[in-house]
Specification:
The protein is mostly helical. Helices cover 58% and strands 4% of the residues. The protein contains 13 helices and six strands. Helix 3 runs antiparallel to helix 8.
Length: 385
Amino acid sequence: MRTEPDPADGPATTPRPATTDHPVATDPHASADRHASADRPATVDRPATTGRLPLRRRLLPVIALLLLAPWAAECSWGGFAIDDFLPVLIFLGPMYGGAAILIRETARHLGAGWPTIVLLAAAFGVLQAGLVDQSLFNPDFLDDTQYADTRAAAEATLVPGLEFSLRQAFDYVGNHIVLTICAPIVLIESFLGADRRLRPWLGRPGLLVVGLIYLLGSLFIFSNINDDKGFLASPLQLTFAASLVLALVATALLPRWRRPRPRRSRRVPHPLWVGLPVVLVRLGSDLSPGWPGMIVALSLAAVAGGLIAYLSTRGGWGQRHVLVAGSAGLVMAAAFAYVVPPYSPASPAAALAGDIAVTVVTVTLVVGAWWRLRRPSPTVHVGAS
């Protein structure tokens, strides 16, 4: 059995056996060799890396994520008819795609995993809805769309003093976590080989460029929304949103997410079962209006997140489990796209064409990623978080 030392550009570690096995998770709780004996202790390490890849190969997943993030955020659930897909990618790509790239690269440069990505995604959701387009605090934000009739349901869960709807906060921030950030990242990473899945794609110059793109895209949306809506949140609301963003970012960067943890001996169930908690959250979050409904929705989300985190510590957890957990929300959004209207009125043909396109793109991406992960690839030992 041959051994592979870590590359010169990464931290020096003890060489580990290189084996061929089923792909492992991008989550820092990645499992040891699937075919190893049950009594062999699981080992962890930083993401495996090889020599520096050509620029073209490093930029391809960056461009893919730049385009997939805005589509997943705004089109995958039926928010736009098919003739609006291209404008969404052009005008919202810098903001949504830039955020997804920065979050992914931050986590991978730190050697952290999905806890960091989810927390940074939540910070982005609050930043976007609270400071950029300020939809969280603007009660008239949806009045010129086909969702104007949701205002009464939103006002049923107003938070006193801060005057924002907890229902809308759950929907806005939750959709940014699931659709804008996590689903695109897990899909793109699943198409990559196991030796590239956890590696950063960009160096400092690339990150500076993407950061500038994100900043300009956000300023463009802020200016456009401000001119269109004529709304600016109060100083108290802005302070609350900014403080929450900083708290989430600080939590995401804690060293604890990069510390190895022991793996449980029990095996994880089939990957498809991992998506069930996400499906239950989607189906159960709208069962009841008002505060009782919010208690149910928040409880389901907390239980689902805790269950997935627990399962990720069990033996056999691999990239297919991560794929199902990360893309189940996207699949559910695509399934419900047929029963929700787009923001702006569109012809029935254009709306139906958009919904069909959403189905085709979603099925192609998810099935293609699943098929890609059936190929044998080198085992990657990553730092548990």
